[in-house]
């Protein structure tokens, strides 16, 4: 897939009649969409969407069908809701959904898009991937080679930039935000990983130079983190409510890797109680991590952030502040569980030259009573 085949764009919010279904594979989506198209009928105002939510080991892929409609639309079996806006990496598949020779089906184009994302070290986002059924049998009948389906993969870099700018403006004012974000237009829509990395690292260095208290600076970057999956946050909160005791809850997290895949423990030996969290590694290339004895390569394959992990290989300096962004993942976790925002401190990180990523969460003693 070439660069001209993939676009960076923002999709606008849309009201839609929605219904959740399960499928075994992407190829099944088209048939389900066609049934929904007939059910919704004239209330459909633009091409249908399918949003891939998550995979259930028993039921398959959970999908939200979204049939764009007016806000007054109603249909039994469907829920009217607003599908939010998103920044996406977009590509259009022209051809059949499935059943053709290898390389010409929808799933082949999907794999090519993800291959493009990996090759260019782009930061996929947290929101569901979307499939927009632009033109199918309702337009072209059985002439499948003319079918057009847009693939939209959520893209986190524009979200990261917007969060950074908002946080700096709130903590230090408009002039400081303009200084930190200087040059961002140069990487707008860019697929050059080196340019993106240099700008991101430069922005964090400029943030370091911006007068503000350390909690404010850490908090700005923590707010740039990926969004913790809402379903997982709900499971964590339900487990905490069921247990009703923070110590026992931490024990549960340590034992239940399905609920919490990292390593976690409570340390009460110091002046303040600390929960330590070590991220599980590596998330993206276990085979490469296990295959090398080179400590630099191991750290490279352990880093979660595609925006900057190449700096481990090149030796390019990385601000110690940067990994507060990863700390924001755990800020969201504890806020959902305890209904309060707790500070998260970066103790070790592979970007700083350590062999692991380790975070500490100071726990108010009254929560352990």
Walk me through the structure.
- The protein is of the alpha+beta class and 369 residues long.
- The protein folds into 3 domains: 3-154, Regulatory factor, effector binding domain (Multidrug-efflux Transporter 1 Regulator Bmrr, Chain A), CATH 3.20.80.10; 157-222, no CATH class; 230-368, no CATH class.
- It contains 13 helices and 12 strands.
- The chain has helices spanning 29-40, 106-119, 137-140, 157-172, 174-180, 193-208, 214-222, 230-243, 246-255, 286-291, 295-302, 310-314, 324-338, and strands at 7-11, 14-23, 49-56, 60-68, 79-83, 86-94, 129-135, 148-154, 263-267, 274-278, 345-348, 358-362.
- A hairpin with a 3-residue loop joins strand 3 (49-56) and strand 4 (60-68).
- Helix 4 runs antiparallel to helix 5 (174-180).
Overall residue-averaged pLDDT value: 92
Order of helices and strands: EEHEEEEHEHEHHHHHHEEHHHHEE
Helix-and-strand structural type: alpha+beta
CATH architecture descriptor of the largest domain? Alpha-Beta Barrel
Question: What does this entry show, briefly?
Answer:
This protein has 13 helices and twelve strands.
Structural descriptors:
single chain; alpha+beta; Multidrug-efflux Transporter 1 Regulator Bmrr, Chain A; eight-stranded antiparallel beta sheet; 12 strands; 37% helix; 21% strand; globular
């Amino acid at each position: 897939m070439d660069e001209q085949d993939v676009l960076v764009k923002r999709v606008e919010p849309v009201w839609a009649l929605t219904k959740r279904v399960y499928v075994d594979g992407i190829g099944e989506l088209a048939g389900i969409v066609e049934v929904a198209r007939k059910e919704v009928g004239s209330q459909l105002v633009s091409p249908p969407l399918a949003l891939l939510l998550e995979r259930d080991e028993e039921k398959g892929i959970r999908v939200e069908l979204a049939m764009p409609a007016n806000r007054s639309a109603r249909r039994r079996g469907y829920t009217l809701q607003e599908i939010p806006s998103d920044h996406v990496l977009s590509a259009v598949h022209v051809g059949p959904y499935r059943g053709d020779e290898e390389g010409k089906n929808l799933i082949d184009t999907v794999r090519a898009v993800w291959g493009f994302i990996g090759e260019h070290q782009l930061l996929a986002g947290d929101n569901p991937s979307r499939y927009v059924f632009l033109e199918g049998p309702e337009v072209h009948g059985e002439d499948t080679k003319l079918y057009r389906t847009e693939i939209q993969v959520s893209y986190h870099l524009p979200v990261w930039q917007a969060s950074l700018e908002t946080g700096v403006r709130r903590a230090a004012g408009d002039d400081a935000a303009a200084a930190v974000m200087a040059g961002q237009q140069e990487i707008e829509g860019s697929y050059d990983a080196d340019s993106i990395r240099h700008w991101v690292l430069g922005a964090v260095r400029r943030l370091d130079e911006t007068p503000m208290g350390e909690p404010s600076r850490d908090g700005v970057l923590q707010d740039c983190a990926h969004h913790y999956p809402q379903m997982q946050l709900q499971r964590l909160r339900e487990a905490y409510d069921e247990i009703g005791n923070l110590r026992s809850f931490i024990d549960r997290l340590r034992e239940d890797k399905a609920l919490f895949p990292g390593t976690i423990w409570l340390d009460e030996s110091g002046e303040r109680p600390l929960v330590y969290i070590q991220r599980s590694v590596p998330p993206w290339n276990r085979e490469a991590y296990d295959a090398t004895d080179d400590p630099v390569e191991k750290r490279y394959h352990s880093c979660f952030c595609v925006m900057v992990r190449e700096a481990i290989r090149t030796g390019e300096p990385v601000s110690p502040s940067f990994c507060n962004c990863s700390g924001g993942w755990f800020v969201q976790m504890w806020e959902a569980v305890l209904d309060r925002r707790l500070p998260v401190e970066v103790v070790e990180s592979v970007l700083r030259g350590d062999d692991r990523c380790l975070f500490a969460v100071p726990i108010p003693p009254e929560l352990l009573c």
